[in-house]
Design a protein that fits this description.
6 helices, Rossmann fold, single chain, alpha/beta, 8-stranded mixed beta sheet, disordered N terminus
């Protein structure tokens, strides 16, 4: 599925923020060269090898994937692994991160993705951890075609924006997630469950980041495969490709 080993298939491109500042992003394209767009919102570890591998993986599924560097205001180009010191640094970056600024950057990146010649259709957004919350907020503020949120931290703190969602949204939650406890998931279900186009899935007995194969401490293959299948089904329904 995902691996840190081997060469990446994409390339770094330059993006422009809404105030015309430049920042980087990783772009991965399907073998055909074109496809629907998929914007990826990073974890707290930056646009690291794991995030680039996710982009490559979904490019193989037919999507033009763009992963913008959302920590460029703090430390451009940061890439962290999963050792204890790197975890500590990642949490420091998370605490310094401006959510609204990040959503603005994702909105600018989404506009860029839609306009690129490789993007042959609509564009959706998908995010992990911090990026899971960001994907939800992009859905409330920037009108993507579809959004997928992998164990988004803090979504329950932003439910006042639920009414602004105008696209299908898929939420994946881990049943044993210390960062998104059951009561947080319940608040999301109470606020948004049952609405047309909303899917909420919980995966019992797995921990935060269980989709990340490079996290041997938490990766759970059966749940990750189910999560991936549900995600691809949602993307196919809205974006294609046929």
């Amino acid at each position: 599925m995902l691996s840190l080993e081997g060469a990446m298939n994409g390339r770094e491109i330059t993006l422009r923020s809404n105030d015309r500042a430049s920042f980087s992003g990783y772009l991965a394209c399907p073998e055909s060269g074109t496809g629907p767009g998929l914007l990826l919102a990073q974890e707290i570890f930056g646009v690291n090898a794991s995030m680039r591998a996710v982009a490559d993986y979904f490019a193989e599924e037919g999507y033009v994937c763009l992963v913008p560097d959302l920590f460029w205001h703090i430390e451009p180009g940061i890439e962290l692994g999963y050792s204890p010191p790197e975890f500590e640094k990642a949490f420091g970056l998370y605490q310094a991160f401006d959510i609204d600024c990040g959503i603005d950057d994702l909105g600018a990146a989404l506009d860029t993705l839609r306009q690129r010649p490789e993007c042959s259709g609509q564009a959706g957004v998908m995010g992990f951890c911090l990026g899971g919350k960001l994907a939800y907020l992009v859905a409330t503020r920037h009108d993507p075609a579809v959004a997928v949120c992998f164990y988004g931290v803090g979504i329950d703190q932003a439910l006042d924006e639920v009414a602004e969602i105008n696209c299908p949204v898929v939420f994946h939650f881990a049943g044993a997630d210390q960062f998104v406890p059951p009561e947080a998931v319940a608040r999301v279900r109470d606020a948004i469950g049952g609405r047309a186009g909303i899917e909420i899935y919980e995966y019992p007995d797995v921990d935060h980041a269980f989709y990340n194969k490079n996290r041997a401490d938490v990766y759970d293959k059966p749940s990750a495969m189910m999560e991936h299948s549900r995600t691809i089904a949602a993307l196919r329904r809205v974006l294609g490709p046929d």
